[in-house]
Specification:
binds NADP nicotinamide-adenine-dinucleotide phosphate; 298 residues; 10 helices; globular; single chain
């Protein structure tokens, strides 16, 4: 018996990085150096590790970086000032703020401080608005990675029921809007579920395509999906395990029971994650190139 298509992000991520590397070289020939300024305000080992990987990936491709790590217990104003400094630095072409932020920080105030023209993750409210209006200037890396995976593995969304589990502004709302958009592939019929959704399973069972970003291990098992479903599991959850590290990484979906019925499914790790990083690098170069073309950033 053949199993479902395994939607691996690694090969797609590698191809995207090759094209990013070429574009970095082309920009270098014109005297332009893409430079990513990042801000991290978290003691979470996973967030710190994501940030380390971003900087390593940039270094490998010739993208310059500035890294600002803010003490998670510092006043919110320290974070706001850090973002403002990167925003004002003419050598920094792009700005990225790692979410989630501590509870005492007003995330909306941080979003307002990211200049739309330097934004690489659709963090700035103006860019979110443009995305909803159907004229995105930049798309969030995770949502881009999901769409790229669906496209690359020929998962049709046209007119079909796509259920997104999670309603975050960082991942799920932009993704839901992109899935609604008319072209190229999406045109989906989108349902967005969250922690207050009554009878999550009734929704997930209706899904032709199920996308999860709940950060909740084992949330979806085989009894909650229908045969032929395509599953994209965005979540990266560390759960205690008898391994060298003391944990293993799992998604929201119980891979073993769901794969039995699925037509296609992402592995965790190895699905959305690697591609998200490449999509971010792609945006760093695209945003920088646009600035160079325009001669200024807004
Ligand atoms: P988050 O801020 O905690 O948001 C989780 C969302 O899921 C919320 O909208 C929440 O609903 C919903 N939710 C939680 N439990 C639920 C349940 N039982 N039923 C239905 N909905 C539920 O999490 P996040 O920061 O977006 O991260 C989510 C996951 O994605 C994490 O595992 C993170 O590590 C991973 N992640 C992966 C990538 C990647 O590229 N692969 C990138 C970023 C994040 P409410 O709004 O009602 O609370």
């Amino acid at each position: 018996m053949t199993g479902p298509t395994l939607m691996e992000g690694g090969p797609l991520a590698a191809a995207m990085r090759d094209s990013v590397r070429q574009d970095v070289e082309t920009l270098a020939d014109t005297g332009v150096t893409p430079t990513l300024g990042t801000v991290l305000m978290s003691a979470d080992p996973a967030s710190q590790s994501f940030m380390d990987r971003k900087h390593e990936a940039c270094a490998a491709l010739g993208i310059e970086t500035r890294r600002v790590d803010v003490d998670p217990d510092a006043p919110a104003s320290t974070l706001y000032e850090s973002v403002e400094r990167l925003a004002a630095d003419e050598d920094v072409t792009t700005v990225f703020v790692q979410a989630p932020l501590p509870d005492h920080v007003d995330t909306r105030a941080v979003r307002e401080r990211v200049p739309p023209g330097k934004d690489v993750d659709c963090f700035a409210p103006a860019n979110l608005g443009r995305l909803v209006a159907g004229t995105p200037r930049v798309t969030p890396a995770t949502a881009s990675a999901v769409l790229h995976l669906l496209d690359a593995y020929d998962v049709d969304t046209d007119g079909r029921d796509v259920v997104v589990v999670g309603r975050t502004t960082t991942i799920c709302k932009p993704l839901a809007n992109l899935l609604l958009s008319p072209a190229p592939n999406p045109d989906a019929t989108v349902t967005v579920c969250h922690s207050r959704t009554t009878d999550l399973a009734a929704h997930t069972r209706r899904a032709d395509v199920l996308v999860t970003a709940a950060g909740t291990p084992h949330l979806v098992d085989g009894s909650m999906v229908s045969p032929g479903v395509s599953v994209v599991d965005i979540s990266v959850n560390r759960v205690p395990a008898d391994t060298d590290t003391g944990y293993e990484v799992v998604g929201d979906v119980d891979f073993r029971s769901v794969r039995a019925d699925a037509a296609a499914i992402t592995p965790v790790p190895g699905g959305v994650g690697p591609l998200t990083l490449s999509c971010l690098l792609r945006s760093v170069v695209d945003v920088t190139a646009r600035q160079a073309g325009a001669g200024a950033s807004d």
